[in-house]
């Protein structure tokens, strides 16, 4: 009988331990940091497919999207803090409910327009300076196995090349962007960002679904403040393969790399 009681006590203690571990993990994820894998190439070369990071949820306060499954009983935003132009932010798509990660370009009230691939904010040019080339292997990337887009068809060496620029936004934030083709979104109509909303773009400008296309046309459109989940501050881990367990594909130079 004592043996049975000990087994039952052991099982009960295990259940209690797992229960409290899940509660603590849920609180940590809700209030502080949310893990996020980079699934696409829309933010190259700032973020690569397979980068793993923790999103800082304390940066902008909390909304219902701060909880898993949008379960927080919050209306609007509490402890809110305004984001800065140039922040790299995870947000909930206003219509699809999918989490996206992009760079904040336009603040409430801003006039944003793209002319010949150059961003203008309130008629001020975000100056681009050539910064060489971004070169990567022309090979399937991530769990989806998608091939990267390149300026020209890769040669025998299998290198995929894009033009790289350093862009400086009004306010002084400088970051890397890529360009590999001429496309329709290189020229847009001027848009005024509504109050309480934000305008986002991917750093890989020719391979990003973002605020340049309105929601009713299949894009991201303007993103409400409530939909911001948190700020990406630092890459924790990075793997170029389909699985994080494929250690031979780890990118050691990206571990604990700051997101700029």
UniProtKB/TrEMBL annotation:
Main location group: membrane
Transmembrane stretches, start-end: 18-38
Domain of life from the UniProt record: Bacteria
Subcellular location per the Swiss-Prot or TrEMBL entry: Membrane
Enzyme Commission numbers on file: 3.4.21.89
Catalytic machinery residues: 42, 102
GO molecular function annotation: serine-type endopeptidase activity; signal peptidase activity
Keyword Transmembrane helix set for record: yes
GO CC terms of this entry: membrane
Membrane topology reported for the UniProt record: Single-pass type II membrane protein
Keywords: Hydrolase, Membrane, Protease, Transmembrane, Transmembrane helix
Pfam family, one: Peptidase_S26
Keyword Transmembrane: yes
InterPro entries reported for this sequence: LexA/Signal_pep-like_sf, Pept_S26A_signal_pept_1, Pept_S26A_signal_pept_1_CS, Pept_S26A_signal_pept_1_Lys-AS, Peptidase_S26
Peptidase S26 domain location: 12-236
Reactions it catalyzes: Cleavage of hydrophobic, N-terminal signal or leader sequences from secreted and periplasmic proteins
GO biological process, one term: signal peptide processing
PANTHER family: CHLOROPLAST PROCESSING PEPTIDASE, SIGNAL PEPTIDASE I
Family the UniProt entry places it in: Belongs to the peptidase S26 family.
Protein name: Signal peptidase I
Annotated source species: Falsihalocynthiibacter arcticus
């Amino acid at each position: 009988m004592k043996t049975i009681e000990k087994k039952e006590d052991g099982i009960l203690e295990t259940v209690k331990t797992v229960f409290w571990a899940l509660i603590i993990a849920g609180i940590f994820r809700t209030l502080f940091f949310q893990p996020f894998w980079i699934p696409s190439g829309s933010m190259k070369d700032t973020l690569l497919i397979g980068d793993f990071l923790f999103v800082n949820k304390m940066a902008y306060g909390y909304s219902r999207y701060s909880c898993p499954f949008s379960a927080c009983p919050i209306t609007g935003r509490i402890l809110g803090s305004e984001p800065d132009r140039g922040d790299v932010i995870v947000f909930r798509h206003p219509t699809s409910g999918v989490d996206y990660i992009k760079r904040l370009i336009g603040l409430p009230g801003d006039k944003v327009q793209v002319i010949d691939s150059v961003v203008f904010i309130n008629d001020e040019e975000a100056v681009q300076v050539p910064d060489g080339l971004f070169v990567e292997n022309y090979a399937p990337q991530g769990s989806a196995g998608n091939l990267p887009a390149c300026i020209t068809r890769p040669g025998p060496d299998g290198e995929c090349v894009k033009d790289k620029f350093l862009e400086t936004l009004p306010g002084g934030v400088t970051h890397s962007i890529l360009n590999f083709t001429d496309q329709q979104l290189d020229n847009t109509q001027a848009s005024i960002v509504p109050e309480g909303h934000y305008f986002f773009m991917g750093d890989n400008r020719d391979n990003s679904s973002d605020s340049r296309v309105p929601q009713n046309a299949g894009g991201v459109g303007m993103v409400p403040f409530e939909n911001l989940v948190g700020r990406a501050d630092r890459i924790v881990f990075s793997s170029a393969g389909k699985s994080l367990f494929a250690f031979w594909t780890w990118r050691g130079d990206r571990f604990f790399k700051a997101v700029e």
